[in-house]
Amino acid sequence: MKTQILIAAIFFSGFVFAQEKSDTLKTKNIEAVTLKKQVFKKQNDRFIYDVASSPVAKGTNTFNLLKQTPMISSIDGKTLKILGKSEAVIYINNKKSNMDADALIEMLKNTPSEDIQKIEVITVPGSEFQVESSEGVINIVMKKNRNNGYNGTLKVQNEQAYYNNPSTSASFNFRRDKLAVNTNMSVGSWTEREKYRLSNGNSTYMNESYGFNDDPNKNVGGSINMDYEINKKQNVGFTYNMRYNKSFNSVLDITNTQNGILKNRTVNNENAQTRNHSFNVNYEVKTDSLGSKLTSNVSYLWFNRDKYSINETFPFTRIKTIRMALLNSGYHKSSTIMRLM
After folding, report:
1. Which of 68, 79, 232, 283 is the most exposed place for a label (fewest CB within 10 A)?
2. pLDDT confidence of residue 319
3. Are 278 and 301 within 8 A, CB to CB?
């Protein structure tokens, strides 16, 4: 009798231990389950970067965000390229941007990355995109506030390169029932300095040019987007973008040599200003439950650029002759010589 009780006790304790071990394993499995949203998605015709789900896509601007997107690159900081495509056409919220290239890049540089929902790199554009077969599309989808209310962002940036370049941008989003409004405003100034050195020739004859380009810019820009949901199948929208750029006292200073001998110096002074206004009215209606839709767009672009430039070339032989004449006459004025140089 004692033996039976002992065996039963051993069996019961073993059963309890196994049950506890099984429960422990189940608990650990539940703790190990984590849900993560996919940041990058590959579809048949496009590559999608879900910016809103990326923890690293914060605290920067949209242009830098695009440069970090797979398949997109920028060599000069002024243009965007898609891998395997001749040109990249920018769309914003599925609507083609009619802004000139400089104004568009400046707008992207002043749009906070926090305002972006996702970026679509479309390598096989469909008929809804107005592009050539050799071109690709970068579609930037802005965030939309789904709840009634408002929010905004303010960004102040200062970049120290060869010159100091400050900028400020602000955005404001508002939604009330079926009406959604998004606005953006930016102002900044920057001066770029580029150095040049170009050589060509061989061991017996060599041409070389070197110098710099200082290009100061002041920029003001803004945009407004309005969307109104007529009903569950119909939507109408309005978009306005404006940019003003002023670039005065831009200087290109180049010195040319032949076989190590100074030949001439070329100085180009330029004043330019650019104005850009673009409007878009669009209407969209869903035609069935499968996602088919009919879209209509009316766009208007006003672009104006004024430029005034003076280009002068000073031969070094002439400068040397003038300097010698001044020295021989006993009269020397450094400011005159410097101006000629």
Report:
1. 232
2. 54
3. yes
Structure tokens at 93: 């919220």
Mean pLDDT of 29-41: 63
> pLDDT per residue over 54-105, tens digit each?
887 888 889 999 998 999 998 888 889 999 999 999 998 888 887 878 888 8
Q: How far apart are CA 213 and CA 163, in angstroms?
A: 13
CB atoms within 10 A of CB 290: 7
78 three-state secondary structure: coil
Q: Nearest-CA neighbor of 189 among 241, 245, 111?
A: 245
Of 330, 65, 92, 64, the closest CA to residue 224 belongs to 92
Residue 115 is part of a domain; what is its CATH number?
A: 2.170.130.10
**Neighbouring C-beta atoms of residue 265, cutoff 10 Å:** 18
The pLDDT of residue 291 is: 74
pLDDT in tens, 118-146: 999 999 998 888 888 889 999 999 887 66
Tokens of 100: 């000139």
Q: Tally the domains of the chain.
A: 1
Residue 253, pLDDT score: 94
> First vs last Cα of the chain: how many Å apart?
119
Please check whether residue 67 lies inside any domain of the structure. Answer: yes
Q: Is residue 115 part of a domain?
A: yes
DSSP state of 143: P
Look up residue 52 and give its DSSP letter.
Answer: G
Q: Note whether residue 163 is domain-resident.
A: no
Amino acid at 35: L
Residue 79 lies in a domain: yes
